[in-house]
Specification:
Elements (H helix, E strand, L loop, with lengths): L2 E5 L2 E3 L5 E8 L2 E12 L6 E7 L4 E3 L7 E6 L4 E6 L8 E11 L4 E5 L3 E5 L2
Parallel strand pairs: 2-11
Antiparallel strand pairs: 1-3, 3-8, 4-5, 4-9, 5-6, 7-8, 9-10, 9-11
Length: 120
């Protein structure tokens, strides 16, 4: 019943910026955790940025100072602002959440992914 849908990916030149969005829909009571992950060809999926319901954020060392995760709780949305993009940032980016449903059940949900390509 609960879904996450990412958007905002695309082709950008090195040094440019992109803003990714993720919206949660369904029988949602609260979103306790939300994170952004990425997977490049031939590599394992890795954590990029995470946000708890208490406002604590964590970032991978490779993106600290360049990426920012934020939330709009009223809209059930999470964003990833990506600045100073590098070719090494090229990957499929996935939204991940731990969501409490209206049926008092906690679910871990993954989005379908959005492709970010950093190239000149």
């Amino acid at each position: 019943q609960v879904q996450l849908v990412e958007s905002g990916g695309g082709l950008v030149q090195p040094g440019g910026s992109l803003r990714l969005s993720c919206v949660a829909s369904g029988s949602i009571f609260s979103i306790n955790y939300m994170g952004w992950y990425r997977q490049a060809p031939g590599n394992a999926r890795e954590l990029v940025a995470a946000s708890t319901s208490g406002g604590t954020t964590n970032y991978a060392d490779s993106v600290k100072g360049r990426f920012t995760i934020s939330r709009d709780n009223a809209k059930n949305m999470v964003y990833l602002q990506m600045n100073s993009l590098k070719p090494e940032d090229t990957a499929v980016y996935y939204c991940n959440g731990i969501i409490e449903t209206m049926g008092d059940l906690y679910l871990e949900i993954w989005g379908q992914g959005t492709l970010v390509t950093v190239s000149s």
